[in-house]
Amino acid sequence: MSVMPAVSGVSGVSGATGVPGVSGASAGLPSASGASSASSASGVSGTSGASGDAGDMPAPLAARARLFPALVAVYRAQLSRARVARIPLLFVATFQSIGIMILMRGVVDGGSEARSVVAGSSVLVVAFVALNLLAQYFGQLRASGGLDHYATLPVPPSAVVLGAAAAYASFTVPGTAVTAVMGSVLFQLPMTNLWILLAVIPLSGAALAGLGAALGLLAPRQELATLCGQLGMSAALLLGVLPAARMPQVVSYARDLLPSTYGVEALARSFDGQPDWWVVCADLGVCAGVAVVSLAAATWAYRRAAVR
User: Where is the chain membrane-spanning (predicted)?
Assistant: First the structure.
Protein backbone atom coordinates (compact mmCIF):
# COMPACT_ATOMS: atom_id res chain seq x y z
CA MET A 1 0.00 0.00 0.00
CA SER A 2 2.95 2.26 0.64
CA VAL A 3 4.43 1.57 -2.83
CA MET A 4 1.48 2.92 -4.76
CA PRO A 5 1.97 6.57 -3.67
CA ALA A 6 5.65 6.35 -4.60
CA VAL A 7 4.74 5.16 -8.06
CA SER A 8 2.14 7.89 -8.17
CA GLY A 9 4.81 10.41 -7.15
CA VAL A 10 7.18 9.22 -9.83
CA SER A 11 4.44 9.50 -12.34
CA GLY A 12 3.78 12.99 -11.01
CA VAL A 13 7.45 13.88 -11.47
CA SER A 14 7.44 12.61 -15.00
CA GLY A 15 4.31 14.60 -15.58
CA ALA A 16 6.20 17.74 -14.42
CA THR A 17 3.66 18.47 -11.65
CA GLY A 18 5.59 17.55 -8.50
CA VAL A 19 9.21 18.78 -8.24
CA PRO A 20 9.96 22.14 -9.90
CA GLY A 21 13.54 21.31 -10.75
CA VAL A 22 12.70 18.08 -12.42
CA SER A 23 9.76 19.62 -14.20
CA GLY A 24 12.05 22.39 -15.49
CA ALA A 25 14.55 19.89 -16.82
CA SER A 26 11.97 17.60 -18.28
CA ALA A 27 10.02 20.54 -19.80
CA GLY A 28 13.14 22.34 -20.98
CA LEU A 29 14.42 19.55 -23.19
CA PRO A 30 11.38 19.43 -25.44
CA SER A 31 11.25 23.25 -25.44
CA ALA A 32 14.90 23.47 -26.45
CA SER A 33 14.45 21.01 -29.23
CA GLY A 34 11.33 22.83 -30.38
CA ALA A 35 13.08 26.17 -30.26
CA SER A 36 16.00 24.70 -32.16
CA SER A 37 13.66 23.35 -34.79
CA ALA A 38 11.78 26.63 -34.99
CA SER A 39 14.97 28.67 -35.23
CA SER A 40 16.44 26.39 -37.88
CA ALA A 41 13.19 26.51 -39.81
CA SER A 42 13.00 30.27 -39.56
CA GLY A 43 16.62 30.51 -40.60
CA VAL A 44 15.99 28.42 -43.67
CA SER A 45 12.92 30.42 -44.59
CA GLY A 46 14.77 33.67 -44.05
CA THR A 47 17.60 32.53 -46.28
CA SER A 48 15.23 31.46 -49.01
CA GLY A 49 13.36 34.76 -48.73
CA ALA A 50 16.58 36.71 -49.09
CA SER A 51 17.57 34.72 -52.15
CA GLY A 52 14.09 35.23 -53.59
CA ASP A 53 14.34 38.99 -53.07
CA ALA A 54 17.72 39.01 -54.76
CA GLY A 55 16.36 37.05 -57.69
CA ASP A 56 13.46 39.45 -58.15
CA MET A 57 15.74 42.48 -58.45
CA PRO A 58 15.88 43.81 -62.06
CA ALA A 59 19.15 43.61 -63.88
CA PRO A 60 20.94 46.95 -64.32
CA LEU A 61 20.32 48.59 -67.70
CA ALA A 62 23.07 49.59 -70.07
CA ALA A 63 24.33 53.15 -69.98
CA ARG A 64 22.53 55.60 -72.26
CA ALA A 65 24.40 56.28 -75.48
CA ARG A 66 26.02 59.68 -75.84
CA LEU A 67 24.68 62.11 -78.41
CA PHE A 68 27.54 62.22 -80.89
CA PRO A 69 28.20 58.45 -81.20
CA ALA A 70 24.46 57.81 -81.43
CA LEU A 71 24.12 60.54 -84.05
CA VAL A 72 26.88 59.00 -86.16
CA ALA A 73 25.33 55.53 -85.87
CA VAL A 74 21.87 56.74 -86.92
CA TYR A 75 23.37 58.80 -89.75
CA ARG A 76 25.28 55.85 -91.17
CA ALA A 77 22.29 53.55 -90.87
CA GLN A 78 19.98 56.03 -92.59
CA LEU A 79 22.53 56.78 -95.29
CA SER A 80 23.02 53.12 -96.17
CA ARG A 81 19.29 52.37 -96.03
CA ALA A 82 18.16 55.28 -98.18
CA ARG A 83 21.02 55.21 -100.67
CA VAL A 84 19.33 52.93 -103.18
CA ALA A 85 15.82 54.32 -102.78
CA ARG A 86 16.64 58.04 -102.75
CA ILE A 87 19.22 58.34 -105.53
CA PRO A 88 16.58 58.13 -108.33
CA LEU A 89 14.53 60.78 -106.53
CA LEU A 90 17.63 62.96 -106.31
CA PHE A 91 17.94 62.83 -110.08
CA VAL A 92 14.29 63.81 -110.33
CA ALA A 93 14.85 66.81 -108.04
CA THR A 94 17.91 67.91 -110.01
CA PHE A 95 16.22 67.59 -113.41
CA GLN A 96 13.18 69.40 -112.04
CA SER A 97 15.26 72.39 -110.92
CA ILE A 98 17.20 72.50 -114.17
CA GLY A 99 13.94 72.36 -116.15
CA ILE A 100 12.53 75.27 -114.14
CA MET A 101 15.62 77.35 -114.91
CA ILE A 102 15.31 76.57 -118.61
CA LEU A 103 11.66 77.66 -118.55
CA MET A 104 12.49 80.86 -116.66
CA ARG A 105 15.25 81.63 -119.16
CA GLY A 106 12.61 82.74 -121.63
CA VAL A 107 11.12 85.16 -119.11
CA VAL A 108 14.16 86.47 -117.22
CA ASP A 109 17.16 87.83 -119.09
CA GLY A 110 19.57 88.67 -116.32
CA GLY A 111 20.23 90.95 -113.40
CA SER A 112 18.87 90.37 -109.92
CA GLU A 113 15.97 88.29 -111.21
CA ALA A 114 18.35 85.81 -112.83
CA ARG A 115 20.29 85.51 -109.59
CA SER A 116 17.06 84.81 -107.70
CA VAL A 117 16.03 82.14 -110.20
CA VAL A 118 19.35 80.30 -110.02
CA ALA A 119 19.56 80.53 -106.22
CA GLY A 120 15.95 79.48 -105.74
CA SER A 121 16.27 76.54 -108.15
CA SER A 122 19.43 75.36 -106.37
CA VAL A 123 17.84 75.46 -102.92
CA LEU A 124 14.74 73.78 -104.37
CA VAL A 125 16.77 70.55 -104.60
CA VAL A 126 17.32 70.80 -100.84
CA ALA A 127 13.62 71.43 -100.25
CA PHE A 128 12.58 68.46 -102.36
CA VAL A 129 14.76 66.00 -100.44
CA ALA A 130 15.03 67.48 -96.94
CA LEU A 131 11.46 68.76 -96.64
CA ASN A 132 9.28 66.62 -98.88
CA LEU A 133 10.95 63.21 -98.60
CA LEU A 134 11.72 63.54 -94.89
CA ALA A 135 8.10 64.43 -94.11
CA GLN A 136 6.99 61.33 -96.01
CA TYR A 137 9.60 59.16 -94.25
CA PHE A 138 8.62 60.15 -90.71
CA GLY A 139 4.94 59.95 -91.57
CA GLN A 140 5.44 56.41 -92.83
CA LEU A 141 7.60 55.56 -89.82
CA ARG A 142 4.89 56.69 -87.43
CA ALA A 143 2.08 54.94 -89.31
CA SER A 144 3.92 51.61 -89.55
CA GLY A 145 5.03 51.60 -85.90
CA GLY A 146 8.69 52.03 -86.78
CA LEU A 147 9.12 54.55 -83.98
CA ASP A 148 8.82 51.68 -81.51
CA HIS A 149 12.12 50.33 -82.80
CA TYR A 150 13.95 53.56 -82.00
CA ALA A 151 12.10 53.89 -78.69
CA THR A 152 13.60 50.60 -77.47
CA LEU A 153 17.15 51.74 -78.19
CA PRO A 154 19.19 53.74 -75.64
CA VAL A 155 19.49 56.57 -78.17
CA PRO A 156 18.58 60.21 -77.46
CA PRO A 157 15.61 61.46 -79.52
CA SER A 158 17.69 64.34 -80.85
CA ALA A 159 20.18 61.83 -82.30
CA VAL A 160 17.40 60.10 -84.25
CA VAL A 161 16.07 63.36 -85.69
CA LEU A 162 19.50 64.86 -86.42
CA GLY A 163 20.83 61.62 -87.90
CA ALA A 164 17.90 61.19 -90.28
CA ALA A 165 17.93 64.89 -91.21
CA ALA A 166 21.67 64.85 -91.90
CA ALA A 167 21.38 61.69 -94.01
CA TYR A 168 18.62 63.13 -96.18
CA ALA A 169 20.36 66.50 -96.46
CA SER A 170 23.55 64.75 -97.63
CA PHE A 171 21.78 63.57 -100.77
CA THR A 172 21.18 67.17 -101.80
CA VAL A 173 24.87 68.13 -102.12
CA PRO A 174 25.58 66.88 -105.68
CA GLY A 175 22.22 67.96 -107.08
CA THR A 176 22.48 71.45 -105.60
CA ALA A 177 26.03 71.92 -106.89
CA VAL A 178 25.11 70.74 -110.41
CA THR A 179 22.06 73.01 -110.49
CA ALA A 180 24.03 76.05 -109.34
CA VAL A 181 26.77 75.47 -111.93
CA MET A 182 24.33 74.90 -114.79
CA GLY A 183 22.29 77.93 -113.76
CA SER A 184 25.40 80.09 -113.70
CA VAL A 185 26.29 78.94 -117.22
CA LEU A 186 22.72 79.37 -118.45
CA PHE A 187 22.31 82.91 -117.12
CA GLN A 188 26.01 83.87 -117.47
CA LEU A 189 26.56 84.46 -113.78
CA PRO A 190 29.99 84.41 -112.08
CA MET A 191 30.90 81.17 -110.35
CA THR A 192 33.70 82.61 -108.21
CA ASN A 193 31.71 82.57 -104.97
CA LEU A 194 29.94 79.25 -105.35
CA TRP A 195 31.92 78.02 -102.38
CA ILE A 196 29.14 79.64 -100.34
CA LEU A 197 27.20 76.44 -101.04
CA LEU A 198 29.29 74.81 -98.31
CA ALA A 199 27.32 76.93 -95.84
CA VAL A 200 24.02 77.27 -97.69
CA ILE A 201 23.42 73.53 -98.17
CA PRO A 202 23.85 72.38 -94.53
CA LEU A 203 22.05 75.35 -93.00
CA SER A 204 19.14 75.31 -95.44
CA GLY A 205 19.06 71.52 -95.30
CA ALA A 206 18.93 71.51 -91.49
CA ALA A 207 16.15 74.11 -91.39
CA LEU A 208 14.04 72.35 -94.01
CA ALA A 209 14.78 68.88 -92.65
CA GLY A 210 13.66 69.89 -89.17
CA LEU A 211 10.47 71.34 -90.62
CA GLY A 212 9.84 68.20 -92.71
CA ALA A 213 10.45 65.89 -89.75
CA ALA A 214 8.09 67.92 -87.55
CA LEU A 215 5.37 67.82 -90.22
CA GLY A 216 5.74 64.07 -90.66
CA LEU A 217 5.68 63.37 -86.92
CA LEU A 218 2.80 65.68 -86.07
CA ALA A 219 0.53 64.62 -88.93
CA PRO A 220 -2.14 62.22 -87.60
CA ARG A 221 -2.12 60.18 -90.81
CA GLN A 222 0.52 59.22 -93.34
CA GLU A 223 -1.43 60.78 -96.21
CA LEU A 224 -1.51 64.12 -94.41
CA ALA A 225 2.25 63.96 -93.87
CA THR A 226 2.75 63.42 -97.60
CA LEU A 227 0.40 66.30 -98.36
CA CYS A 228 2.24 68.63 -95.98
CA GLY A 229 5.56 67.71 -97.56
CA GLN A 230 4.21 68.42 -101.04
CA LEU A 231 2.76 71.75 -99.97
CA GLY A 232 6.04 72.75 -98.33
CA MET A 233 7.99 71.93 -101.47
CA SER A 234 5.47 73.87 -103.59
CA ALA A 235 5.90 76.87 -101.27
CA ALA A 236 9.69 76.62 -101.66
CA LEU A 237 9.21 76.48 -105.44
CA LEU A 238 6.87 79.46 -105.76
CA LEU A 239 8.37 81.69 -103.06
CA GLY A 240 12.01 80.81 -103.71
CA VAL A 241 12.34 80.60 -107.48
CA LEU A 242 10.09 83.47 -108.54
CA PRO A 243 11.75 86.90 -108.20
CA ALA A 244 10.71 88.67 -105.03
CA ALA A 245 10.27 92.01 -106.81
CA ARG A 246 7.35 90.65 -108.83
CA MET A 247 5.46 89.27 -105.84
CA PRO A 248 2.58 91.05 -104.07
CA GLN A 249 3.33 92.51 -100.67
CA VAL A 250 1.20 89.94 -98.85
CA VAL A 251 3.04 87.06 -100.54
CA SER A 252 6.39 88.58 -99.61
CA TYR A 253 5.45 88.28 -95.94
CA ALA A 254 4.86 84.55 -96.41
CA ARG A 255 8.21 84.37 -98.18
CA ASP A 256 9.95 85.76 -95.10
CA LEU A 257 8.47 82.94 -93.00
CA LEU A 258 9.89 80.18 -95.23
CA PRO A 259 13.16 78.82 -93.77
CA SER A 260 14.82 78.35 -97.16
CA THR A 261 14.33 82.02 -98.12
CA TYR A 262 17.43 83.14 -96.25
CA GLY A 263 19.58 80.50 -97.89
CA VAL A 264 18.26 81.66 -101.28
CA GLU A 265 19.06 85.27 -100.44
CA ALA A 266 22.58 84.42 -99.31
CA LEU A 267 23.29 82.45 -102.48
CA ALA A 268 21.74 85.12 -104.71
CA ARG A 269 23.88 87.88 -103.17
CA SER A 270 27.04 85.83 -103.74
CA PHE A 271 26.53 86.22 -107.51
CA ASP A 272 27.15 89.97 -107.27
CA GLY A 273 30.44 91.38 -108.46
CA GLN A 274 31.22 92.66 -104.97
CA PRO A 275 28.95 90.84 -102.51
CA ASP A 276 28.04 92.44 -99.20
CA TRP A 277 29.38 89.65 -97.01
CA TRP A 278 27.92 91.14 -93.85
CA VAL A 279 24.44 90.80 -95.28
CA VAL A 280 25.27 87.30 -96.55
CA CYS A 281 26.44 86.29 -93.06
CA ALA A 282 23.30 87.82 -91.56
CA ASP A 283 21.13 85.73 -93.88
CA LEU A 284 23.09 82.60 -93.01
CA GLY A 285 22.80 83.45 -89.31
CA VAL A 286 19.01 83.70 -89.59
CA CYS A 287 19.01 80.40 -91.46
CA ALA A 288 21.07 78.80 -88.69
CA GLY A 289 18.70 80.12 -86.02
CA VAL A 290 15.69 78.77 -87.88
CA ALA A 291 17.50 75.44 -88.23
CA VAL A 292 17.99 75.20 -84.45
CA VAL A 293 14.33 76.02 -83.80
CA SER A 294 13.00 73.61 -86.42
CA LEU A 295 15.22 70.75 -85.24
CA ALA A 296 14.17 71.38 -81.63
CA ALA A 297 10.54 71.28 -82.75
CA ALA A 298 11.19 68.02 -84.59
CA THR A 299 12.79 66.52 -81.48
CA TRP A 300 9.77 67.49 -79.40
CA ALA A 301 7.45 66.03 -82.04
CA TYR A 302 9.47 62.80 -82.00
CA ARG A 303 9.13 62.48 -78.21
CA ARG A 304 5.42 63.18 -78.48
CA ALA A 305 4.89 60.61 -81.23
CA ALA A 306 7.08 57.94 -79.58
CA VAL A 307 5.08 57.81 -76.33
CA ARG A 308 1.72 57.42 -78.05
Answer: 89-108, 114-138, 159-182, 194-217, 224-245, 277-302
